[in-house]
Write a structure and sequence with these properties.
The structure is a single chain. This protein has about 300 residues and is an alpha+beta fold. The protein has 2 domains: about 100 residues, Phosphorylase Kinase, domain 1; about 180 residues, Aminoglycoside 3'-phosphotransferase, Chain: A, domain 2, CATH 3.90.1200.10. About 40% of the residues lie in helices and about 15% in strands. A hairpin with a 2-residue loop joins strand 2 and strand 3. It starts with 9 loop residues before the first helix and ends with a helix.
């Protein structure tokens, strides 16, 4: 679901003011770019002459059947933020959470500090950009953070070639490879949605990572592979391979090819629809060549097995 630039309801803003206390008043509101699964707004809060900028993330549209599970997910995200900040990771600090949304206008909500920096999708120095991302990934994977076990986003038995594919036999090979047990048993703290839309940059340095809702204990190669997939759809397989090499140079260990492939195989035709929404005009998007770029990366990853 993509959330439009609507202002949060008055009840949600009133919850923010109560949560911050000390006479806080929301005096400005702006939707932040992205928002595929949640509505995210930057709020300016006034206390007398003082101003504070915070971020409100709201999960709207839950059905009665899904509301309990969503509440659990939001409470988990709040715990993850606390743990990530305590571990020294560049995550926003939790200010308040309403897991069920009962006191926040009906939608589950998380209130966080605003991290400095902006997204960077057209870096002037791509190699330095990739090295910064690799350093951030390594720090996350080395962090002593307790989290629930990861859940797979892909059922290999149901994997089929996208309608846009020109190499269906390649997808059949990927399917057969992933249906066999494989992959390292290594587990670490992982972000689980580690990709360039969730990074904030300041003067060429990666200074913040956002969107920790899916963080878990899992194979670090899942983070690397998910990032590589996003790099391939926007830039190409060559840049995705350069990121893998940068991560391996930073950590001193090879990226597990089976879990890497598992992450890459999550691609489908829907990516051609939602990637332009995430980019939001900040970089060129070649949707016609997207599937071919992913298939080039899949083939290269299969060769590492």
């Amino acid at each position: 679901m993509h959330f439009q630039a609507r202002r949060p309801p008055a009840a949600a803003l009133a919850w923010v003011e109560r949560a911050l206390g000390d006479g806080a008043r929301v005096v400005a509101c702006r939707r932040l770019t992205g928002g595929l699964v949640a509505a995210v707004h930057r709020l300016t809060v006034a206390r007398g002459r003082n101003r504070q900028v915070v971020v409100l993330r709201r999960y709207a549209g839950a059905t009665a059947a899904s509301s309990a599970a969503l509440a659990d997910d939001v409470a988990r995200e709040a715990r993850t933020l606390d743990a990530a900040v305590a571990a020294g990771l560049p995550a926003p600090a939790l200010l308040a959470v309403s897991a069920r949304g009962d006191d926040a206008g009906g939608d589950p909500a998380i209130l966080m500090t605003r991290l400095r920096g902006l997204a960077s999708l057209s870096p002037a120095d791509p190699d330095r950009w990739l090295r910064e991302i690799a350093v951030a990934a390594a720090k996350i994977h080395d962090a002593p953070v307790a989290a629930p076990p990861f859940e797979r986003w892909l059922d290999p038995a149901r994997l089929t070639a996208p309608a846009s594919s020109t190499r269906p036999a390649l997808w059949q090979t990927v399917r057969e490879t992933l249906r066999e047990d494989g992959g390292s048993s290594e587990r670490s703290f992982i972000h689980r949605d580690f990709q360039h839309f969730n990074f904030l940059w300041t003067r060429g340095r990666l200074t913040g990572v956002v969107d920790w809702g899916a963080a878990a204990l899992g194979p670090p190669a899942l983070d690397v592979g998910h990032c590589r997939l996003n790099l391939a759809v926007l830039f190409g397989a060559e840049r995705a391979e350069r990121f893998r090499l940068a991560y391996e140079a930073e950590t001193g260990r090879a990226v597990d090819a089976w879990w890497d492939l598992h992450a890459l195989a999550a691609y489908g035709d829907a990516w051609m629809r939602f990637i332009p929404i995430q980019v939001d005009g900040r970089a060129p998007v070649d949707t016609d060549g997207m599937t071919a770029r992913v298939e080039e990366l899949l083939a290269a990853t299969l060769r590492r097995l």
